[in-house]
Amino acid sequence: MKKIITLMFAAALAAGAYADEFVSPGNGTVYTLEDLSKIEACGVHKVEGAWVLDSTFTISDGDVLRLQNNEVVKFTNKLQVRVNGTLDCAPADTVLITRDSEESTPKGFRMLSDNAKAILKNARFEYVGFTFGGDKAQLTAENCTFYKYNGTLSSGGALNFTASCTGNLVDRCNFLESASAAISNGANTPIGIKITNCYFGANNYKNSNRPQINLTTCGTEDVEISDNTIIGGHYTKVGGIAVSNMLGMAFSNKVVIKNNVVKENRYGINVTGPVNAYIIDNDIVDNTYETNANNGGSGISIYDSAGKGAAYIKGNLIQNNLWGVTIIGSPEVNAGKVEDKNAADYNPGENVFKNNGNNNVLYDLFNNGPKTVYAQGNLWNVEAQDSVSIEKVVWHKVDNKTLGLVIFMPAGKTEQTSVTEVKTTAPVESVRYFDAMGRESAVPFEGINIVVARHTDGTITTTKQLR
Phi and psi at residue 371, in whole multiples of 5°? Predict the structure, then answer.
């Protein structure tokens, strides 16, 4: 009897605590932290110029929580704030949201209603994360920093989508040293999202089997991951970018992964399941931190056992990975098809392979599936771009009759190609080097260089060369 009474008393305490939690009325009210500090149940206090939040509260659908310019907001241990309406965090200058002490492991913002909206601009989030999603929910994050998310709100990511939603944008943001992935969603909750112009550095320091960007994609909503820099923390289980459709859900969308730098991860770019992927103009370099080459380390890996997915691979620098491109199962892979420029599947190739291999063997492309793969117009890691030489760095039907053929001839051209023809015999006065993404260096880049030379007669010549 005593045990039953004790359990009933504990349940009553929990129910009472929930009943005392502030829940806004959902009548269109806009709440600032100053407003909430006047409501005792909210647990919002001003301490040494900062707002300290020590009680969970809920902003209902229809209402707004607005964080104001130059505010400092501190979450106490385990604290979670629910916003079913709108989180307006778009100051003109900045807002800092962080923990109240080094001992605290706050959770962050939980936004899981159909009409949830997060507007995040010019803000810095430290040690807190976001769980987000709903039928009409939408998240915009611009010029924000997400630093050292601690993983207590979700093991998925600093931005974790737990329900399907579309129209999401993450632009010009930094994701640094999170305990888990930077951006992720569930295997059964595909989302539409653009991730552009962001920096990802050393996320998933707990070294779980999750990449820095980890997205499920299918349905009708496109995904774009472009112009980002994804630098690993040399963790043995953490890849760069992974997009997947592991449940084999129906899809008509496309996934574009373009103009990214993916460097020093367990692997570079991984596509799993039926996905329509376009992998274009990325620098995929030094992804070698898988300890067993049989388990990963590819610059680009395409895996689809169902044979419903497709990958278009063009213009990538694939260098110093354990494998260059690996193909597993039966996806349709076009890594260069130059026979007919007017064909719907024309692809000039233009991928550059350099020093990809493991156990003292070079692997530029490994076709570990039964389908024919076109890979024409590329530059391979051999001195002479002829069929006998290229055969040494490609694994396919010639090596194992159960595998599909790789058609790699004609290869790309190694000679210097003029981009802008300006005839001059004047000596060179100065030279500038740019890579394919427009970044300048004092010395040539490894890979494709745009070389701009100024001559003593005032003329300028521009050429493209491979180093």
Answer: -90, 155
User: Which of 179, 168, 185, 186 is closest to 205 using CA atoms?
Assistant: 179
The pair of three-digit structure tokens given for residue 312, joined into one six-digit string: 């278009």
The amino acid at 34: E
Contact 33, 51 (CB under 8 A): yes
**Which candidate, 156, 189, 197, 150, places its Cα nearest to that of 173?**
197
Distances (CA, A) of 467 to 103, 351, 353, 446, 451: 51, 14, 12, 6, 11
Output the CA torsion sign for 379, 382, 386, 389.
negative
Read off the pTM.
0.85
Per-residue model confidence as pLDDT tens for the chain (467 residues) = 444 444 443 333 333 334 578 999 999 999 999 999 999 999 999 999 999 999 999 999 999 999 999 999 999 999 999 999 999 999 999 999 999 999 999 999 999 999 999 999 999 999 999 999 998 999 999 999 999 999 999 888 999 999 999 999 999 999 999 999 999 999 999 999 999 999 999 999 999 999 999 999 998 999 999 999 999 999 999 999 999 999 999 999 999 999 999 999 999 999 999 999 999 999 999 999 999 999 999 999 999 998 999 999 999 999 999 999 999 999 999 999 999 999 999 999 999 999 999 999 999 999 999 999 999 999 999 999 999 999 999 999 999 999 999 999 999 987 444 344 445 566 766 666 655 444 556 667 665 566 666 666 555 565 656 55
Q: For 70-111, give the DSSP string.
A: T-EEEE-TT-EEEESSEEEE--SS-EEEEESSTT----EEEE
